[in-house]
Amino acid sequence: MRGVWKGLVFFVKLSLRMEWRYVAYQSLACLLEAALPLLAVYLPKCILEEILGRAELRRLLGLSLGLLGSIGGLRVLVRLCKNKAFEARLRLADRFMQEMYGHMADADYERLESKEYLDLRQKAEKILYGNGYGFGYVLVNALDLLSKGLSLMGFLLLLLRLHPLLLGSFLLLVGLDAGFAARNKRKAIALQLEGAQVEGHTMYMDRLFTEPRFGKELRVYGLKGWFLSRQAEQMEESRGFYTRMNRYWSRSELLAAATELLRQGCTYAYLIAQTLSGAMSVADFTLYAGAATGFAQSLAALLESFIDIKQYGLYYDALEAFLQVPASLRERGDQAPPRQKLDIRFEKVGFRYQGQEAYALKDLSFTLREGESLAVVGENGAGKTTLVKLLLRIYAPTEGRILLGGRDIQTMEYDEYMRLFAAVFQDFELFAFTLLENVALRAQGDRKRAMEVLEQVGLGEYVRSLPGSLDCYMSRLWSKDGVEPSGGQAQRLALARALYKDAPIVVLDEPTAALDPRAEYEIYQGFDRLTQGKTAVYISHRLSSARFCDRVLVLERGRLAQLGSHAELMRLGGPYAELFGMQSRFYV
Q1: Class assignment of domain 344-430+485-587?
Q2: pLDDT tens digit string along 127-179?
Q3: Cα(575)–Cα(344) distance, rounded to whole angstroms?
Q4: pTM greater than 0.70
């Protein structure tokens, strides 16, 4: 039984915590709704008895209007309660989705690169819209158990006067119907969870045609035919999946139709025989015919609600598995980081990506003194970006440790540690919000401070030329007056963002990759000014940038090859001098 109710218990607790009005309105609607089928059955009997008894027209009209008014009033109240419940459920779903996004924001970064984690997230999100209704469906079914149970008891009291074999046939036929429906629903819901991968394929193919980042290659390389062919394959996969799903639902519906026909045939045959023999009045025939149908429908609905609650446990299992994925990097440390003497020390650090046998970094040891600038260079795959990710606690070392101010960074409270860093990544993102929001990275930023850093990175004139200046959107998604910055402008904005934060440690991963030579030279000339008084880690494939740093760290296949100033390494010769010479020949 715990498996049946665990999803319900979770949802009720969630609802009471986030939006208790949903539970209140939905409960009231279900209780009021329980009376409607009983009134609908009782109304024709009362009217028929008055007609057959030749009652006065005035009395007949009064009775009819009173009964009809009761049913109409109840329906209005039920509809009002359901409208309020619907609005509350939307708020609840929004808050729950925000909690899901918050969980993803806290998750270890490597989870976002894991197909298993992303598939698990898609399955967990199905609790929001499973069965076409959403996770509120489990509460509706639970309340339906109460509502249909009350209606069932009312119908049962009316039918107790009939032959026991009739009630037995109801129970048998409805039970068979519910049993087959349960089996088919279980398979259909399992298929829905399986469909997370199919839906992922569908969304990816849609992005190939709609997202600008794919548009250039599509046109230049003539990919239309290939993409349409791949999309046709995906559509066939999708059709096959939904066809299998539909078959399961169809079997349940066909069986329900057959059992309903048999049930009604038995019922009407019995009631007609009783009426013709004089054992039952016409009014009672109407009452019992409606009661028999209502009893069977209420029992079937009650069993179906119970089945749906049980089946919803499959959705909850996926959600529970998702919510239990640990945010290990965030949860490790609880100590405040130091505020001074921020020397960084790598001690025999090694790192291996999940599922890989080879180490991306191995036995790496060096010290970066506070206020010093360090260029990290090496060929592609040498481990430069991995070093930065370890420093920023995007990953944790597989072996060894990283110290800040003499203390292991894994012991430090995660958010407090992150406040010490500003970073510009090679694959940085601008958001489809205003320029000010993109620089300040918050809703209400310091306009004066934002303009200062934009001037520092050479975007002052550009900002003044924009419609709305700092309030101009960096995309046309939200505003028709929005702009799409060029690659170089976007990269300067990313630099301004890092300067705005004013953190004591700055990490720059290819910060000038999209700039032209003149703009790159201007950034290099101002490098000391931009990072004055800060510790700076600078990654670049262009070794000329290393001349602006205090020291250069050279990586080869994940290991430390050389460490020293530009001048020292050029005198020593070796990997750095060789790489620098190879690049410089292109500019001679």
Answers
A1: alpha beta
A2: 655 554 555 566 677 777 777 777 777 777 777 776 677 667 766 766 666 66
A3: 24
A4: no
Quickly count helices (H) and strands (E) in the chain: 21, 10
Q: What is the CATH number of domain 2-17+94-326?
A: 1.20.1560.10
**Pairing outcome for strands 551-556 and 373-377:** parallel
Say how far apart CA 315 and CA 124 lie, in whole Å. Answer: 7
Q: What whole-number distance in Å separates Cα of residue 496 and Cα of residue 227? A: 38
Q: Look over the chain and give the mean of its residue pLDDT values, rounded to a whole number.
A: 78
Tokens 């997370």 locate to 196
Where do the domains of the chain lie?
Answer: 2-17+94-326, 344-430+485-587
- The answer to whether residues 127 and 318 touch, using CB atoms and an 8 Å cutoff, is yes
Percent residues over pLDDT 90 in the chain? 11
Residue 423: count other Cβ atoms within 10 Å of its Cβ. Answer: 22
Q: Distance (Å, rounded) from C-alpha 384 to C-alpha 388?
A: 7
Place of tokens 């409208």: 83
Element (H or E) spanning 368, and its range? strand 361-368
Q: How does pLDDT run across 546-585, given as a tens digit for each residue? A: 778 889 999 988 899 989 988 899 898 888 888 888 776 6
Q: Which helix (H) or strand (E) holds 354?
A: none
Q: At what angle do helices 282-323 and 57-106 cross, to 10 degrees?
A: 10
Neighbours of 573 (CB within 10 A): 11
525 neighbors 371 (Cβ within 8 angstroms): no
Residue matched to tokens 């190939």: 208
